[in-house]
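yo

u said u wanted the structure for the complex thing, so here. seqs first:
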Amino acid sequence: MLKLKIETLSKEAFAPFGDLIASEGHDFFMINNGSTRRYHRLAEVETGTEGTPIISIFRAQTLPMPLRVRMMERHPLGSQAFIPMRGNPFLILVAPPGDDLTSSQLRAFYSDGSQGVNYRPGVWHHPILALTDPDEFLVVDRAGPGNNCDEFFFADSEEIVLDPEH
Ligand SMILES: NC(=O)N[C@@H](O)C(=O)O
Ligand code: NI
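structre next:
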């Protein structure tokens, strides 16, 4: 059985998978006559030449935990950002882009609820892993032509477990 280690989310740790969307620890400049900090260009929205960036809200239910991880997905044509709208912690499960996904590449992270993430195109990720039921996330991703969602299923013989309590 592979019990996934849950790492603290940071800009550096998440860099192989995309961008951390958080004000903490990020540069800013003042706008609005000095009343507002602008944490500028935290992430880039990628939609390819034919796509359109869109904003949606995901109202997610929690999955039974500990979770048996059976699948991952990726969006080859565009990025996908998840920003927590209610400040609740949530989990992120990712793996580097590529066609030969193996469970040894999986990386799990814990967001404290003040941090969002932006998956770069092609980065493998598990569908949203809310820890509060329900929870809401602002999602910025791509609408447009072409297949933008590949799924990968691990073999039944692979027992991969994600346990937020450990
Ligand atoms: N399918 C969809 O819109 N959501 C997934 O991409 C996800 O990452 O949750
Ligand atoms: Ni996705």
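Helices lie at 11-14. The radius of gyration is 16 Å.
cya
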